[in-house]
């Protein structure tokens, strides 16, 4: 290689290539004599600016101001456009970062004297390193606009004053900061309702889920006992409640628990002269839905535990018998560790699912009965209360604030429990 060319390579400046790429995409590539790539980056950035400049400027103006002229500016549309502008900007920033790093890496290669890769080598490098990302990008973009955008919109509403009496286009929304969260724990009506619903949600989640897991475990151990005959028939019968759609079962139970003509009061409790207010007293409504959820949930847990119990080697129990282990010791040190090792994540999902179990609360008694001094029903949990605030009373801001708290609680609980289940990831720890 001639001395002049070598000296030029050594003087090639990667920092200058980065600066040029930061000023405008593609300039760094032109500095590196990657003309085709540089022109492509220039065309992409120019097209982006021409296409999205007005949209982005209007979007950022809208998300900061939420409009200035009532009945002309629609705060919700401006908010959504602003969120889309942020997402587009994030994608553009990611591509811009790739442009800058590409210019820097090419400049470093030139300074080290590496030759310019051929088209075939470039395609091979793209296939080895970039092809998986290229195939994932379309799905990721769709996921962002289907999942992330609605979540961002919900989070944004929690910091506005969007409700029935202040809704666009008649009125403009305003950013209120954490006022909705403060009202949730300071205004007497909201505070009493939130504490009541939140405490019942915790009780409902723990009691209903634990009961269905305990019943499923008990029946699985019972049916798996060697002394029990006709195991297949019994398992089929016990799984039948799982085969019936849940909403059908809930509606049937709602009719059976009816205070006036339900079979529970008329044909069962009526024989001993009793009639309980299942649908009109919050306490008995809560008892009823816990029993219904136990009925709906135990077949899945039963099937889950049955499969695990059948996979446990009998040699473990035979060795325990030789050592003089009792039935309880075998259950504690052999059966339960194996069950938890295989099912702990699914059991955690049972708790998280019941925490947001909207169907049974809404279909059984619509979250009722009504409670004096609260804007939620006696059996409402957080998710059903959010539904009522959204679709019945149009308190969108408070519903969004409660949804954020609900999501944080579920995510925190799941994260903590999954961290706790690390002790079951290695079979040698059993």
TrEMBL record:
<feature type="transmembrane region" description="Helical">
    <location>
        <begin position="202"/>
        <end position="224"/>
    </location>
</feature>
<feature type="transmembrane region" description="Helical">
    <location>
        <begin position="38"/>
        <end position="64"/>
    </location>
</feature>
<keyword id="KW-0762">Sugar transport</keyword>
<feature type="domain" description="ABC transmembrane type-1">
    <location>
        <begin position="198"/>
        <end position="417"/>
    </location>
</feature>
<keyword id="KW-1003">Cell membrane</keyword>
<feature type="transmembrane region" description="Helical">
    <location>
        <begin position="287"/>
        <end position="312"/>
    </location>
</feature>
<comment type="similarity">
    <text>Belongs to the binding-protein-dependent transport system permease family. MalFG subfamily.</text>
</comment>
<keyword id="KW-0813">Transport</keyword>
<keyword id="KW-0472">Membrane</keyword>
<feature type="transmembrane region" description="Helical">
    <location>
        <begin position="236"/>
        <end position="257"/>
    </location>
</feature>
<dbReference type="InterPro" id="IPR000515">
    <property type="entry name" value="MetI-like"/>
</dbReference>
<keyword id="KW-1133">Transmembrane helix</keyword>
<feature type="transmembrane region" description="Helical">
    <location>
        <begin position="76"/>
        <end position="98"/>
    </location>
</feature>
<feature type="transmembrane region" description="Helical">
    <location>
        <begin position="12"/>
        <end position="32"/>
    </location>
</feature>
<dbReference type="Pfam" id="PF00528">
    <property type="entry name" value="BPD_transp_1"/>
</dbReference>
<protein>
    <recommendedName>
        <fullName>Maltose/maltodextrin transport system permease protein</fullName>
    </recommendedName>
</protein>
<keyword id="KW-0812">Transmembrane</keyword>
<comment type="function">
    <text>Part of the ABC transporter complex MalEFGK involved in maltose/maltodextrin import. Probably responsible for the translocation of the substrate across the membrane.</text>
</comment>
<feature type="transmembrane region" description="Helical">
    <location>
        <begin position="396"/>
        <end position="416"/>
    </location>
</feature>
<dbReference type="InterPro" id="IPR035906">
    <property type="entry name" value="MetI-like_sf"/>
</dbReference>
<feature type="transmembrane region" description="Helical">
    <location>
        <begin position="133"/>
        <end position="160"/>
    </location>
</feature>
<feature type="transmembrane region" description="Helical">
    <location>
        <begin position="333"/>
        <end position="353"/>
    </location>
</feature>
